[in-house]
């Protein structure tokens, strides 16, 4: 699941960068005066007073779009559609998922009006590179939406990449936890992990659980290295903001890589290109039931029939108590909308405590900084009864990265380097040096295409 997510992220980022030049002229709908390209280019939205919000006099038709084409009509209705139609019975709501014939480029070329875009943070730059961003600040003020009620890092991210403008509001965020199979711990008489452990302590547990028994190879711990790096707890950045070049070939990133690969270097387990994929390792945990512990940083929990529970993602000694970065989904009113106030009314409802509570009960965690709402996480789902739900939501999270196309390129190279290391193709120093060089070549090509 994570492999697909990061693969889609990279593809979207590269595609978006290629279309930057088109957004200002050749694409129907234009840029409406919005900044085209990365948010740091053009006029600083914060430098001038935002215009007064437009009046709610447009059509009662709203079209929502996502680049995450795996969300079908039923999933959309479960997440948003049913709640929106109930709250706004006079609105005609249409949903368009990305797919063959309905990519963002194709829709804009056909003159399709998109009112609201919703997507994970991984696509944060996608619609902006088509010149669709709209500063919602006037509407936020008109609706008296208190941005301090949101999980701080999700709003700080928007202000940072928007140079003060707010182009998107978070609607829910993924859980992050260390999940463990109780049966394996019981089988080997090893005490369960606890909340607030360090990675060093989890390493010691993993060594005790990596063993061969009855012809079966058990593994103490696996993870999606790319996701762990993208949401890293140390605030490490893939790209130097001053030079725009990859910086994964340095001591900090080497130490971080070592903190992950050490779990894969116990004797007895032979890692290959086939069993080292995220999908394969997750299957070892969820289907084969031969892995004792697994971290998921972008949502998803073990299957209902597993005897599982969760503890907080372990922390690093140099960053005590700091959990992984949030992985939120965002809602964005576009500058194409013919009724921006109505579109924003829908966004405002979806980020309200009323909707957030019900959505959290269905297993999509609130982005509001409200622990009372989080207590109801998964309440409508039997799989969460008796589980350590609080562990899935760090008390304090690391600052979000930028998710710029350049960052996505370097991130993918880091994940590839991880595979090269655990399959014994390269050592850490060589793998990260080669990954850094490869990332900078792609970044240089991307930069050239933007000009």
Tell me what you see in this structure.
Mean pLDDT is 86; it is low at 1-48. The chain is 37% helix and 12% strand. It starts with a helix and ends with a helix. It is of the alpha/beta class and 451 residues long. It is built from 15 helices and ten strands. It folds into two domains: 2-173 and 328-389, Periplasmic binding protein-like II (D-Maltodextrin-Binding Protein, domain 2, 3-Layer(aba) Sandwich), CATH 3.40.190; 177-324 and 404-450, Periplasmic binding protein-like II (D-Maltodextrin-Binding Protein, domain 2, 3-Layer(aba) Sandwich). Helix 1 packs antiparallel against helix 14 and helix 14 runs antiparallel to helix 15.
Would you tell me the overall average pLDDT?
86
For the record, the CATH architecture of the largest domain stands as: 3-Layer(aba) Sandwich
**Rg (CA only):** 22 Å
Kindly provide the name of the CATH class of the largest domain.
Alpha Beta
Give the helix/strand class: alpha/beta
Largest sheet: 5 strands, mixed
Low-confidence stretches: 1-48
Instruction: List how many beta strands DSSP finds.
Output: 10
CATH topology of the largest domain: D-Maltodextrin-Binding Protein, domain 2
Give the count of structural domains: 2
Number of helices: 15
Distance between the termini: 34 Å
CATH H-level superfamily of the largest domain: Periplasmic binding protein-like II
Compressed to H and E, one letter per element, the order equals HEHEHEHHEEHHEEHHHEEEHHHHH
Q: Tell me, what's the shape?
A: globular
Strand fraction: 5-15%
Strand order of the largest sheet: 2-1-3-10-4
Q: What level of helicity do the residues show? A: 25-40%
